[in-house]
Amino acid sequence: MFRKIIITLFVVSVLLTGTSVAQNATEDLTQYVNPLIGTQEMGHVFPGACVPFGMVQLSPDTDTIPYDVDGKYTGTVYRYCAGYQYNDPTIVGFSHTHFSGTGHSDLGDFLIMPTVGDLKLNPGTADQPESGYRSRFSHETEKAVPGYYNVKLEDYDIDAELTAAEHVGFHQYTFPESDDAHIILDLTHGIYNYDGKVLWSQVWVQNDTLVTGYRITSGWARTNYLYFAMVFSKPIENYGCKNEHSQVYKGFWRKFDQENNFPEMGGRKLKTHFDFKTKEGEKIKVKFAISAVSTEGALKNLKAEVPHFDFKKVKQEARYKWQNELEKITIDASPEKKVTFYTSLYHTFINPVEYMDVDGQYRGIDHQIHKADGFVNYSIFSLWDTYRALHPLLTLIQPKRTSDMINSMLAHYDQSVLGMLPVWSHFGNENWCMIGYHAVPVIADAWINGIRGFDPQHALDACISSATNKYYGNITDYMKLGYVPYDVNATGSSMTLEYAYDDWTIAQLAKAIGKEDIAKTYEERSQNWKKLFNDKTGFIGAKDSEGNWKTPFDPLQTHDEGFIEGNSWNYSLYVPQDITGLIKKMGGNDRFSNHLDSLFSMYLPDEYFAETEDITRDGLIGCYVHGNEPSHHVAYMYNWAGKPWKTQERIHQIVNTMYLNKPDGLCGNDDCGQMSAWYIFSSLGFYPVCPGSGQYAIGSPSVQEATIKLPENKELVVKVENYAEKNIYVQSVKINGKELTDYALEHSDLLGGGELVFKMGKKPKK
Amino acid sequence: MFRKIIITLFVVSVLLTGTSVAQNATEDLTQYVNPLIGTQEMGHVFPGACVPFGMVQLSPDTDTIPYDVDGKYTGTVYRYCAGYQYNDPTIVGFSHTHFSGTGHSDLGDFLIMPTVGDLKLNPGTADQPESGYRSRFSHETEKAVPGYYNVKLEDYDIDAELTAAEHVGFHQYTFPESDDAHIILDLTHGIYNYDGKVLWSQVWVQNDTLVTGYRITSGWARTNYLYFAMVFSKPIENYGCKNEHSQVYKGFWRKFDQENNFPEMGGRKLKTHFDFKTKEGEKIKVKFAISAVSTEGALKNLKAEVPHFDFKKVKQEARYKWQNELEKITIDASPEKKVTFYTSLYHTFINPVEYMDVDGQYRGIDHQIHKADGFVNYSIFSLWDTYRALHPLLTLIQPKRTSDMINSMLAHYDQSVLGMLPVWSHFGNENWCMIGYHAVPVIADAWINGIRGFDPQHALDACISSATNKYYGNITDYMKLGYVPYDVNATGSSMTLEYAYDDWTIAQLAKAIGKEDIAKTYEERSQNWKKLFNDKTGFIGAKDSEGNWKTPFDPLQTHDEGFIEGNSWNYSLYVPQDITGLIKKMGGNDRFSNHLDSLFSMYLPDEYFAETEDITRDGLIGCYVHGNEPSHHVAYMYNWAGKPWKTQERIHQIVNTMYLNKPDGLCGNDDCGQMSAWYIFSSLGFYPVCPGSGQYAIGSPSVQEATIKLPENKELVVKVENYAEKNIYVQSVKINGKELTDYALEHSDLLGGGELVFKMGKKPKK
């Protein structure tokens, strides 16, 4: 009841006061979110409409086609991970599923495009938009806010508005007068499409306003089953399809004219259209619900979430849902800071998504239908990225969702014939991207930081099964030799370092639940990083199966030196579980901090940069690569070397230069919120350098004050005394009055709420 | 309890006395069934193992591939409707799903083949069996009895035995000594395969004896989802696969060596192998359960039906299940007659199949999972064939199954976006083969003959929706013009005749439930045959949309004269609902019976025969085509023309010449039991000339005595007095003492059981 009142108050305040509400508990935080940040170049986020963690992420696709008409690869797959690039001149249409910020692409399911005039069922090209159904558009008519997207489709004079619920995309198209208006549903469209990706697609016109169907695709998700139910606000006049797949056996379906007003359409290259007559300014609304289970599931979702045609209501509800989540952290900061802060927070609440129907049914990685028993099933786990800061952030401010995500991971493990926790999983599939078994630190960190609602023994079993897996990631070699040799895997050194860290978190989890033997085993395994530390060079190197160091060895090179998405200069610092041990190996505090200084100040020559993935030049500071994840903890390492002011300088620098309020304001892939989660933590003045340790490292806060909502209605207030632009240096930190002496903040100390007080100054405290 | 005792007694009697048990209630009737009858040429039945109406029909495939290596169509699709041709020299393997006697092909799912020696994963060719995994075989080592099939695979010295439960194929292979024994599961194999038929296939090796998986195919069934669970009696030593599909996107699955001992295999051209070491004479057993729902469904089916590895037990149970069904009719006749009779009865109990899991779940034609509520869901409805005699036979002796089949048809209708009852449906799909809406007469006949357990109003609605359907079969033209013009559909005249009959049955159903208005409408529609009766020629002709007769018109020609699977000579007699009216149109009794005489005595020139489908020359008597269904009632029509002795002669002739105890003993496709059902009825002395009329026409019995088990433990005893080879003429017929005067037997008179007594003589009773 209380909650209901809050909702009403908020809606009223938004309606009455627009974006000018005063800062209080119900300030409209969504006004600070700019979904267009990161839509140009490397950010790979989408500008469209979604609700927090919603399965439907309805967004314009400006291009997606990796192959030209001659079947030649055009290299655009990577550009279109989120379907949208800010500089593109045309919109192909609006599809319902997207990744947020990834470095690989898929999804883009169920593209809808409204048009008028001659019916065109191919998308055409950006050069010649009139060659297909796509349309020109301008950023001048484009508006993107949380849960709502609006643009004018210039070629058709159609005003397109999008909003969303968890499983429902809601389209509102304002047409000109036309006897020839169309809404196209192109079932061949997809992100990272290739000829043959659609294994099957099916459409049933149930009546003159309801259409159901599904498609099965084989892409990055090797077997993606997605069903839909689409409802029009106005009866369909005529409808039809083209099925351009020539190979498929037609059987006695050839008796029918399946292309015109025939209610059952099936095939592998199906493009459907629904035709209307419209008056000037007439709105046609389309509700589009999805399910991984069945069309019946999609209908259930639709009925539960959007049982009406009130577009404004769904738009307002979406905005409220965002407000409700964004209120998890309220800050006192400049409006500019609020934009980057709340846009970042927005990005941390997009992936993973609730991958289950309202009745709890979802499709497992065993391709079977399961019912989530007592949890919400989530999907899209980009774990190599997100174990670092996104999941620790969710553990802090989204404890229920974290518990649900862990139960989702354990269900994945139970369904895995390989006995693996998720590595990089999405939409009922394991796609095996990147390295490590980083579900393990997520689980361990969550348990250690007080998340409950899952069986820790089951979780430990799953972690051990993943960490001893005979199929995956050369773990057999790792267990035999203590490292993964570069001659069996070209990224073996990265694997070794990450396995050693993951192993350390297994030890922490085991210790926490009293399994000392297991803890000991994995504590030992966590020292494996030492096997690849080359005392002669002072870098982590690469060894072959015989134990010989790789020579020659280039610590600046990202490829073929044993690493992935990072060179030895960066990766040599990846020992978060034993930074003290690493510093010792590297020659003590001074030599170590000199090493860090060099990293931040050296110039990465162009030939090396060309080989660095997923980032822009803006994502570099010297050879430090913020646009990729392996370095995300690095700026905090000065703390361990006795030079915390250097951490404070670098954090301040990164926060202020690498998160900007412009379309290309992200210097690398947002990676399902990891880049943004780094920003949130670092803005608040602390960061989980080593998830599983129960500790955060102190950085340099860039907000004046912040209130973080914690479990059980507790609140942590972060106060920054002597807050000023130049006061970037921490003079003291107190948690509930107790002064921190080692720049380490215990999670257990803040979990009960209270005050975290930074005292800042313009000079380093040495 | 009583039933249990009977089972035990039967099993004991089979064990102790083999096939020599005396004739009594527990005589072993399975001894008379020869599954090899009809496996050569046109019969299109399979010789393998199944239980009555079982979903698994596990049988050897001797070839199936319609395209040669250059992709050229070889024309063998039709030959291999059941996967097996008696004269073939090799066996490709044993697959789990088959049609019985159809004229189109599909299925052949999940081919298993045991081999020894070098691993070969392609089937090879019949010319050069050593080029692949197939093996030579000989009929000398081949044994086929109900529920059991046995053959020696000569190339490998492997003795192969097959038996089955409803959802489980049970293989027992006796190997020679080998370090290199294999069991191949070829997921690319299928009947009517084409490149691209397999949309997706998936295999999970769950442990060293359990393998699960599925495939989705797009063939005659446009979207066929079939799941499996396979259990070996011996742990797998090694396993692997080849996936020859080059197009599919591989993603990060390429990290794994998926071809060797990798437990998750997926792709579009997947061939898997499981390797063993065997001792001389060692048996490896394979239990293979299927489900249209999920691998979990397959496992449930396996657990419920075959929770052990006792091959002999399953084989005996299968035989008992057959005995139990065959006992529905016991006859006194010569052993030769018993062979053709019980083989025919066997053929009538194969299709349709129980298409649902043990928990009631099945896949509907809307591709969704449904739970059958209070009925068993059946599939494989070859209705153009089977509405004539198979369903009337099942209505008589399988009332519960008939009720279930009708509920299955109504569920199909409920799921049909077109609002159609099944036309020719199989495995969760409508394949739209042939013409008519012949679910209608099945439903009407069943209701009129006392079958209950379904909602007659719902059934009537479904019949009317089908009969007024705007999408299907030019019904719109039919409703407008009273006939289907040949210029809009080349088979319009056949359609018109069959629609008119189907309409008549709607009228009967409507009348029976008190819907007189509807009855009147459809009574009128049932006279539409007259619109195509050409008084000038005395034949049913073809009209164009303007009402002009097609000229020239050749009543001997099967193609392009308005008909399908029959010429005008045969089809002109297709007015079962108004034979009296037809006789009048054709000039009275004498001219009509002369017409029939001509039909049976004329010679069909070779050029016409060449165009006649689905039959052998043996299937002709003059121009009468017994191998196709439109004539199945024709021999009985003499009764209406006052010359019943001519019916008796022709029935006697057909019964004795067209059902022979040899591999090519069927003169045409058995068509899911329709040909065989004709034989059963005709052998018993009566036949449902017009299902829905509640009447049978009297023919000439060819058994000496028969006992037919009826609902509610009633029995009808057919007694034939003066039974002798030459006494083919009926002198009198009495039902429970009441003499029949018009050669018409009321179903209501026999439903209560009692005696049907034929008195025979060597001379016609004129």
Automatic annotation (TrEMBL), chains A, B:
Source organism, top-level taxon: Bacteria
Gene3D superfamilies linked: 2.70.98.10, alpha-1,2-mannosidase (1.20.1050.60), alpha-1,2-mannosidases domains (1.20.1610.10), GH92 mannosidase domain (3.30.2080.10)
Boundaries of every Glycosyl hydrolase family 92 N-terminal domain copy: 32-291
UniProt keyword annotations, A-Z: Calcium, Signal
Example of a GO biological process term: carbohydrate metabolic process
Residue stretches making up the Glycosyl hydrolase family domain: 298-762
Signal peptide from the UniProt entry: 1-22
GO cellular component terms, semicolon-separated: cytosol
A molecular-function term among this protein's GO annotations: peptide-N4-(N-acetyl-beta-glucosaminyl)asparagine amidase activity
Quaternary structure note: Monomer.
Protein name: Alpha-1,2-mannosidase, putative
Species the sequence originates in: Tangfeifania diversioriginum
